Amino acid sequence: MKAALVLTLVVVSACKQEQAASPTPATSPTPAKDKHFTVSFSGQPATVGDAARLSLRLVATDGFHVNADYPVSFVPDESPAVAFAAPRVPLKDTAAKTLCAGSAEDTCALDATLSPKAVAAGTHRVSGVFAFSVCSADQCLIEKEPVSLQLVVSAPQ
Asked: Which domain holds residue 49?
């Protein structure tokens, strides 16, 4: 009887070790949320003491357009390279708008220029969150898209 019990324990133990050694099947990742827009963030080299020239571009895609009622803005992260005048930069009224093809009122692209003061020489990361909304005939989506770039700032000559 004891031998049968010992043999059963050995078999159970071996099965558990085999299960632990075999990898668990991988699950498929959840598909990423469909994005109905593209965003780009770029900058031109700047000089300490001058305004840097940063550009944000939003293009609505797949039958979406930029929501004209949403307060489009940029919330910058702290950066040693540049100093923004405010913790939130409103862009709705200053951005250049490109109308959608065949529409007299819907904007499909938005180009905004940011001009923070360059404060430190070197190559620095400038980042923040671009907040906007895009709409289709059926729905409006509020988006907060993180953006970043490397900005070269030179010392004044």
From this structure: 37-154
